[in-house]
Amino acid sequence: MADQLPSRSENFSEWYNQIVQRADLADYGAAKGTMIIKPYGYALWENIQDYLNKRFKKHGAKNAFFPTFIPTSFIQKEKDHVEGFAPNLWLVTAGGGETLEEAYAVRPTSETTINNTVGNWIQSYRDLPLLLNLWNSCFRYEMRTRLFLRTSEFLWQEGHTFHATWDEANQYALDILNDAYLDFYANAAAMPSIAGRKSEKEKFPGADITYTLEQMMGDRRALQSCTSHNLGHNFAKSFDIRYLDRNNELQYVASTSWGLSTRSIGGIVMVQSDEKGLIMPPRLAPTQIVIVPILRKDQDAGVVMEAANRILRDLDDYRVELDAREGLTPGFKYNDWEMRGVPIRLEIGPKDIEKNQIVLVRRDTGEKKFVPLAHLLDEVKQMLNHIHDTLYARAKKFQDDNTFEVNSYDEFKERTAGEGGAGFLMAHWCGDRECETAIQRETHATMRVIPFDQVKEKGKCIRCGNESEGRVVFAKAY
Q1: Do the beta carbons of residue 254 and residue 122 sit within 8 Å?
Q2: CA separation (Å) from 381 to 37, 109, 241, 378?
Q3: Long-range contacts of 356-362, Cβ-Cβ distance < 8 Å, separation of 24 or more
């Protein structure tokens, strides 16, 4: 713990890599590109699951499980889908010492295996909507990996729903984006987002529309933090999923899929951290409060520990840990818990007991506050909420300060030059796929999102000069 982290401003990549490991979130697996999520990191994922499960169930989605192995013939049924995922597929070609008659894809996503099945479950309009959500592993071959952000296997949730009409599917995809994901990031992770839709080039393979939340990381790069897809009738036609409507006529179902992964943990690290280590958003933190008793050799440690345990019981509505490790100085413990990002550190020693008070220290600002024991519960509640609000406001200010309107291609190229992030570049774009591809090739910036709140204004495309109806968000991205 004595070793200082690399500078966040000078070497963001190595700073991130070390925080993930030194804060005990994750480690590298033995197989190339894989990740081990350690208990502290997994507890964070469990809190994310708990929050989102409530939001999904509010919208009627029920959890289910589908197999990891998918016959490759299923994936090949949807042309755009197979083309989009073919480079990243893991294939199983043998089992039990024998070559398989048909190779299995190890789940890159579950649209095909679910669509192959639900056609047997849906017969009439009475069976709709069918609303499913899965919590599982996903497997995609990756050449360059980074813990949480891009690994060959990762955890995620993927929702799959089936509706009577295209409009119903589209509304559901939007509801999940806004009422589940956007709510989660704003009110649990304390992270601002730009909501909107992807371009035709960047949308999910096989989707009619892909909706997204894009966020700015601490190095000014963008992160796609989740997606919600209106798949229209595409998979229904490939898998012949039809139902009898109220007029007794056969119609194709419309479907959606939507997902958020452990990449969200990487986003939390990159937004909510500093030179000392991780800063956990209070509503997701595995440990919201750590109690550090100050024990002196020449004083009665038993009295301090008794008071610490009493406070532990009083705070049982929160996720609290009592650090009673022996042989470690208070200073070492402070640094240890700062690295892990625990929102509040509570210190209590003999002098505090005499004064009937405790000391609360905020991880986000380092502010120290002396609080009468009688006011502890009220103070903790207010402080946790204030930390959340402060983290969100700080991230929003950083995003706003690094969002730029760009009106010439020379300025665009200047801002995207070099290896670092460029911030969010609000620029006019003609909507042409070839122009978008050229911008990416020439600047390494991608079109991240067409914002829902896009102001309709006439302009000229940043590259080709053709007419544009509004600005979109470009950025260098993970």
Answers
A1: no
A2: 30, 40, 51, 5
A3: 358/311, 362/387
CA distance 12 to 15: 5
CA distances from 181 to 53, 169, 383 (A): 11, 17, 25
Of residues 347, 373, 375, 372, the one with CA closest to residue 361:
347
Q: Could you tell me the end-to-end alpha-carbon distance of the chain, in angstroms, rounded to an integer? A: 29
Q: Are residues 119 and 216 in the same domain?
A: yes
Distance CA 277, CA 279 (A): 7
Residue 354 is which amino acid?
A: E
Cis omega (within 30 of 0) on the bond before 108?
no
Domain assignment of residue 140, yes or no: yes
Model confidence at 148: pLDDT above 80 = yes
335 and 413 share one domain: no
Residue 299 is predicted with a pLDDT of: 67
Total number of domains constituting the chain? 3
Residue 167: how many CB atoms within 10 A of its CB?
A: 11
Per-residue pLDDT tens for 251-288?
999 999 999 999 999 999 999 999 999 999 999 999 99
Token pair in block for residue 145: 């990996």
| 105 closest CA partner among 77, 78, 139 | 139
Asked if residue 438 belongs to a domain, the reply is yes
Whether 397 is in a domain gets the answer no
> In angstroms, how far is CA 377 from the centroid of its own chain?
31
Q: Kindly state whether residues 296 and 248 are assigned to the same domain.
A: no
State both tokens at 141: 């071959």
For residue 340, what are the β-bridge partners? none
Span 194-226, pLDDT tens digits: 999 999 999 999 999 999 999 999 999 999 999
Q: Give yes or no: residues 379 and 409 share one domain.
A: no
